[in-house]
């Protein structure tokens, strides 16, 4: 009589910010292990460096998980949803399924690293295989070092070192099938997590602009490479032009890997689009630089990278902060950006710099207030890029913009939205104003305002601060700082 062969124990595939099948190294390891694969997503309250996901990104996560569930169904698999402390959840799943291995892709925020390190140690101490893989970045933050063996503190040398390190590895394809276990563990329902806003449904217009999920991300890459990238180097600065990739929210939750995006640009790198490709690739590598900073300075979200700014004389003014958040500053390009953020969970990159400069330098409000607002309202909120970019504008970050670079919001609007199309889209009360005054409603003659149906202070606010005065105040505040590193 033949003794039955014992079925290999399953492997738990732990999804995090890698909600895709393509170019997923942990998934590849699980699929080729010869074991049944149990995909799981754990909702971990408060585990990441930046705290729980913001409201806008929770909206995205709901739809992204739904898309991932559908994709896994196509492989003969399913997604198990659980919530709670990650180690506790994994240990319970191991007990329920008799799994003897857990695999995941690494994350690079400080608290996430700490949690993963503890989990790996705890699982291995119980004889459970626990393996992690790269793939969320084009480089591991420990890899690139200066000639002196230190981490990079300025972007241009980092970019050069990245270029000289060779092309990133080619992305790997998604598996065609996953071996299913004989019995699936129980799963939460996605609806039970209540991640979609209802009363009020402030995300009602998100779907006008976004379709979460891996399939949408791959389609967006194709559309960008076939079209908008041809105008990227110049057009990316003009918020009324469709010249950006709109891939940031897909990257933020790992619906597409940076290696897949980089690979998509390879066929263009040697033709007439080279300048546009290089400019776009530099933006991908800026994201890498932000993670490089976060990895080596874990308090990037809460502390100044340059401690010279620790004594900066910030003002605390809730009324001004609220006016900025609501897009009621009296500066059209600033208000358009803040309203675009609320309406679509996203803001054009050039306008992000303008609105950040206004909060920090015109209003003298601590950059951490802006970082927190963006973190909650952006669908592409990223623990490294959000903090690093706010510190860049504030002058306190690595390779930061000099503090004395203070954007004039009127001139910025006239330069990058010369016809006022962007402002008219998001500040409709100014839609009938002549282009000459679209960024200067305060200077518009009474008859011009009347024809446009505008009464300043009633239909549209007067400026909450005089820019010329605010600029001098900001420079004086900066000059008061003692020398630092």
From TrEMBL:
It comes from the Bacteria. Residues 9-138 form the Photolyase/cryptochrome alpha/beta domain. Gene3D superfamilies: 1.25.40.80, DNA Cyclobutane Dipyrimidine Photolyase, subunit A, domain 3, HUPs. Its cofactor is (6R)-5,10-methylene-5,6,7,8-tetrahydrofolate; FAD. Keywords: Chromophore, FAD, Flavoprotein. Belongs to the DNA photolyase family. PANTHER family: CRYPTOCHROME (PTHR11455), CRYPTOCHROME CIRCADIAN CLOCK 5 ISOFORM X1 (PTHR11455:SF9). This is Deoxyribodipyrimidine photo-lyase. It comes from Rhizobium dioscoreae. The gene is phrA.
């Amino acid at each position: 009589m033949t003794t039955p062969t014992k079925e290999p124990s399953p492997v738990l595939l732990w999804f995090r910010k890698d909600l895709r099948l393509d170019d997923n190294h942990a998934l590849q390891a699980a699929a080729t292990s010869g074991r049944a694969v149990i995909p799981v997503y754990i909702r971990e309250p408060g585990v990441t460096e930046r705290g729980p996901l913001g409201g806008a990104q929770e909206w995205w996560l709901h739809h992204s998980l739904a898309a991932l569930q559908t994709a896994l169904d196509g492989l003969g698999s399913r997604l198990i949803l659980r919530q709670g402390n990650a180690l506790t959840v994994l240990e319970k799943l191991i007990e329920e399924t008799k799994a003897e291995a857990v695999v995941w892709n690494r994350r690079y925020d400080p608290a996430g690293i700490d949690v993963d390190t503890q989990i790996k140690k705890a699982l291995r101490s119980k004889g459970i295989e626990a393996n992690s893989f790269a793939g969320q970045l084009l480089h591991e933050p420990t890899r690139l070092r200066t000639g002196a063996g230190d981490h990079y503190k300025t972007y241009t040398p980092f970019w050069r070192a990245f270029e000289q390190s060779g092309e990133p590895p080619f992305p790997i394809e998604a598996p065609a099938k996953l071996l299913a276990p004989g019995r699936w563990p129980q799963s939460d329902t996605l609806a039970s997590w209540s991640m979609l806003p209802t009363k009020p449904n402030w995300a009602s217009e998100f779907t006008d602009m976004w379709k979460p999920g891996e399939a949408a991300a791959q389609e967006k890459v194709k559309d960008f490479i076939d079209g908008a990238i041809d105008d990227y180097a110049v057009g990316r600065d003009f918020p009324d032009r469709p010249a950006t990739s709109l891939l940031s929210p897909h990257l933020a939750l790992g619906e597409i890997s940076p290696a897949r995006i980089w690979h998509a640009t390879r066929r263009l790198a040697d033709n007439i689009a080279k300048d546009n490709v290089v400019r776009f690739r530099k933006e991908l590598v800026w994201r890498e630089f932000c993670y490089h900073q976060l990895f080596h300075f874990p308090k990037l979200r809460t502390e100044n990278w340059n401690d010279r700014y620790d004594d900066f004389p910030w003002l605390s003014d809730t009324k001004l902060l609220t006016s900025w958040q609501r897009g009621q500053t009296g500066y059209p390009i600033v208000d358009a950006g803040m309203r675009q953020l609320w309406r679509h969970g996203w803001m054009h990159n050039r306008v992000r710099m303008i609105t950040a400069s206004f909060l920090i330098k015109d209003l003298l409000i601590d950059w951490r207030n802006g970082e927190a607002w963006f973190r909650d309202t952006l669908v592409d909120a990223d623990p490294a890029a959000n903090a690093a970019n706010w510190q860049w504008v504030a002058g306190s970050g690595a390779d930061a913009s000099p503090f004395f670079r203070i954007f004039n919001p009127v001139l910025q609007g006239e330069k990058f939205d010369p016809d006022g199309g962007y402002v008219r889209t998001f500040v409709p009360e100014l839609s009938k104003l002549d282009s000459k005054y679209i960024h200067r409603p305060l200077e518009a003659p009474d008859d011009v305002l009347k024809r446009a149906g505008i009464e300043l202070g009633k239909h549209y606010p007067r400026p909450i601060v005089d820019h010329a005065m605010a600029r001098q105040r900001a420079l004086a505040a900066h000059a008061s700082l003692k020398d630092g590193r």
